[in-house]
Amino acid sequence: MRAAAIAGLISLCACSTTPRHPPPHSQFDDAGFRRLVAAIASYEFEGRRPGSAGAERAAAYLTGTLRRFGAKPGNHGSYRQEVPLVALDTVEPTAFSIAARGGAVHLSVPASDAVLWTPRESGTGRLQHSRMVFVGYGIDAPRLGWNDYAGADVRGATVLVLDGAPAALARRNAGTDGGFALARGKIAAAAAHGAAAVLLIHRPGRFATPWTAIVNRVGHGIIEAPTADAHAADPAVEGYVRSRAARRWFAAAGANFDAAVAHAERPGFPALSLDLAADAGVQATVRRFTSPNLIAIVPGGERRSEYLVYTTRWDGLGYGAGRDAGQVLPGAIDDATGAAGWLILAQAFAHAAARPERTIVFLATTGGEFGALGARYYVEHPIYPLSRTVADVNLPMLRVGGPARDVDSLGPAHSPLAPFLAKAAELQGRIVRPDPQPLRDRYARSDAAVFAAHGVPALYAIGGLDDAALGPVWGAARLDEYFAQRYLRPTDRYAPTWHLRGTLLDLHLVEAVGRRIARADRRRLQGRERHDRRDGSRRPLLLYGSNP
């Protein structure tokens, strides 16, 4: 008897110090998840670019799956909320040249060093001898005590802007909306100061999106939300240039690029007028169309008029450009894993033995790669009132691999949803950590940030870097490898060799968080706080800077 008691005690102690994985669940099977990811990321859907035939086929597949899984249409009998968009497909080649020293020196700009577009719905963007001004990081955020435009007159000028944010500012604002550091914030600031063009200087680095991925995102042009003035007030030309080109331009103007970059790291940086002038011509074909947000619900019980939203993204970029021209960009990890997990969650809630207390809304947004366009449209045209939407749980992608000892919470630590995540993680024997790589700005670019900016508590959590078998150093290196080699590339494709035990564990975590929120007292979900957008603009986010 004593031996049995001791054995039982040893067993109990062992259980208390090891991860408590949830029991098997019929909807969370490995094979089912694989089938969904393989289908969504298949070449049949041609990369799912909004407005394409492939995207329409993908939307039909997803809505058909929602119906088959038992989730009800979420928009008055329809699974679709049509989002009006405008595509500006750049017509090659674009003309771009730089003159230095009063025109005495002419610099050609190879196509491999710059990618330009126009946001104007006229389809034409031109520069004629536009003087060039370096404005550091191009941030105008008075509440942060930072204004790179102080004392500068850039009306009619082409502003050169560093991508990202100065290190001190980035560290101070990790886990916030962070729009000031993204291209949308920089472009809006330049437009507010009257700039004719904005050229973002791309610099390679660990947390920078590779140049090839940037070209894949905008090399065919952009997709944006229509505006009342057809974007006529926006800069005529926008684009990216590589730092090696910018360095040549500075040298031709008698300036030192590296010294200017170093000075831009400090507040109070004075804008630097360069003895340079830009000429450019960008032509685009203009297409107006709609692309759907996909929406389904699982009706709630006692509090059915309150809503919990699970968000994901379903479409992508289509085909590559530049060196990846003609190749499909499958987007298997980003965002087919998120969309597949989202479908499985819809099935799990629809077939649960007990109805959730609150209505669960499943929203897959369109235009995510062009600035969270679908999420922005939804919060401005909500099907379910935001005042009665208690939370958004964001699921754009899942970590592929074995179990991790930790969970990365990419949003603000003060979110009222943080305790729900911490409890669900604890029950799996895991800990919650803040974003280990905040310079990637994953939260700032997410649909979660859009909902939070409109007063809805939002959560964006993903399996962490501390792999249970191989440790955190390996996990960090693996994440770096994904962003460096596969993000927005043809190589982001599904493989049957994927190890998914940790992936499904993370999906259980997200389900558990949602179930807790769905039954929680409303007072525990208070603290609804609008994030400071910091860029002073409602302009849709077109790009994410060089941060992926």
Describe the structure in your own words.
Helix 3 packs parallel to helix 9. It is globular, with a radius of gyration of 24 Å. The chain has 14 helices and 18 strands. The protein is an alpha/beta fold and 548 residues long. The model is unreliable at 1-26 and 528-548 (pLDDT under 50). It has a 16-stranded mixed β-sheet that branches. It has a two-stranded antiparallel sheet with strand order 6-7.
Shape: globular
Low-confidence segments, given as residue ranges, are: 1-26, 528-548
Individual helix count = 14
Tell me about the largest β-sheet. Answer: 16 strands, mixed
> First CA to last CA: what distance?
60 Å
User: Which radius of gyration do the C-alpha atoms yield?
Assistant: 24 Å
Mean pLDDT: 89
Would you report the number of β strands?
18
Task: Estimate the strand proportion.
Answer: 15-25%
Structural class category: alpha/beta
Instruction: Please give the share of residues in helix.
Output: 25-40%
How do you describe this structure in short?
This protein is α/β, with parallel strands linked by helices. The chain has helices at 2-16, 30-40, 53-69, 167-172, 183-192, 211-218, 243-252, 257-264, 332-350, 373-380, 418-427, 447-453, 471-485, 501-519, and strands spanning 72-73, 80-100, 105-108, 114-117, 124-134, 140-141, 146-147, 158-162, 197-202, 221-224, 237-242, 272-298, 303-313, 358-365, 389-394, 406-409, 431-434, 458-463.
